[in-house]
Amino acid sequence: MNKILIKLKGLTCVISIVLTAFGSTLARPASAPHPAAINVSDAVVREWNQIAFETIPPQPPFPANRWMAIVQVAVFEAVNATTDKYRPYLGTISAPEGSSPEAAAIMAAHNVLVAYFPAQTAVLDQRRDASLALIPDGQAKIDGIGVGMAAAAAMVANRTNDGSSPPIFHMPTNSDPYEWQVYPGCPAGGGAFKHWQNVRPFAIDSASQFRSGPPPALWTGMYAHDFNELQAVGSLNSPNRPQHRTDVVRLYAIYNPPALWNSALLQIASTRNDEITDTARTMALMNMAVSDGAVANLETKYFYRTWRPITAIPRGGEDGNRRTIAGPFTPLINTPCFPSYPSAHGTLSNAARQVLEREYGRFGHLITFQHPTVPGVVLNYSDLREITDDISDARVYGGIHFRFDQDAGELQGEAVAQYVYNHMLKRRGR
Prior knowledge:
- It is built from 13 helices and five strands.
- It has helices at residues 43-55, 61-83, 101-116, 121-132, 139-158, 221-233, 243-254, 257-269, 276-304, 309-312, 344-360, 384-397, 403-423, and strands at 2-8, 11-20, 23-26, 367-369, 379-381.
- The strands form two sheets. The protein has a three-stranded antiparallel beta sheet with strand order 1-2-3, with helices on one face.
- A hairpin with a 2-residue loop joins strand 2 (11-20) and strand 3 (23-26).
C-alpha cells in the first residue's frame, strides 16, 4: 500500500492507494453498496469538460478525440464509484461511503490532463484548487480526492501502449485511377494517421467491426453525380456556391469534432438540471463513440485508399466514366493528407450526434457555434441533425470530399455510436 501526501489550499491529507496492474483503486471492497447521489449538481463535470478541451492543443481530431475520451471516462469512473449508479468502465475503482463526487471528478480530470500535458501543470493546478475550494473541507472531500486520483491513474495506465504511437505513414505504390495520391502539403512520409487503425478502441471490438461498404465504382452514375457536384461547388472561386455555404465551410474547417461536439453537449447540459453521474456518463459515452469512430474511420480509409477530389477532378478523363470531364481544380479549403472514403468528419460527428440524440432528443435545443478566427459567422441550431447536415455540406462545398464520402461516414458513425451506447456504462440492474 502506498501513501500519498496531498497538499492543496487549506487542506492536507494522506490517502492510501492500492496499485493494481490496471491502475489504482481505493482499498475498499468493490461490492460494498453506495447510496446513489441525489440532486448533486453536474456543474463541476461541465466545468472540467470545458477545461479539458481548452487544454488540448489545436491539432487533427484523432489524438484530440482520444485524449477527451480518456479524460471523460476517468471522470465517469471516479464519479460513478461514489454513486454506483451505472456499471463501471474498468471496475477497479471503489470509494468510501459518502465520498464527494465533485472532488472525485475534479481530481480525475486534472490528473489525466497533467499526465498528458505536463507543461500546463501550473495552470491546471490553479483551476483544480479553485474548483476544490468550493467543496466543504472534511472526510467526504478527502475521500473524493483519492477516488479521482485513483481513476485518473487507472485510465492513464489502461491507455498506455494503446497503438496511438508511433506514427505510420502511407506512400502509394501505384497511380491507378481511384488510388489515393500524395499532393502538396502532405508530410514527406505520405498519408498521415495510417497507424490510427491500430489504436485499441474504448468500446467496439475491433477497428474493422464497422468498416464501411465499398465506395461507388468509378463508372457508376452515383460517382458521376457526386464528381459533378464537387466540380460545380467545391472549387476555390466557384460561382455556384452560396455565401451561407461558404460560411459553413469556413467555420467547420476550423471547428474540429472534439471541440464542436463537447461544446454542443455543454450548451445542452447547461439548460438542464441533471445529476452529476448522468452528465459524466453522457460525456464519457459521446467521447468514446467519437474516438472509436476515428479508429473505425481510419481503418476503412486505408482499406479502400480512394483519391481525393484534388486528384480525381484533374484526372476525370481517366476514370472511365463518360459523364465526368477533367478540369483544373483547387479546393476552397486545404485537403487533409489521407484517403477520402469515408469522411472522418462525417463519422465522428454522426457518432457524437447519435449519443446526444439518445440522451437529450433531436429537437428543441439552443446551440450556437462561432469562432474568433471566422469573424461574422454565427450558426444557430435547434435540431441536432441540422448540424451534421451542415458538416456534410462543409466538406463537399469545401472541395475535399465527395457526397458519398459523407453519406458513408454518417452510417459508420451512427453504427459505432449505437454499439457504444447499447453496450457501455449501462444503468445498474439493466
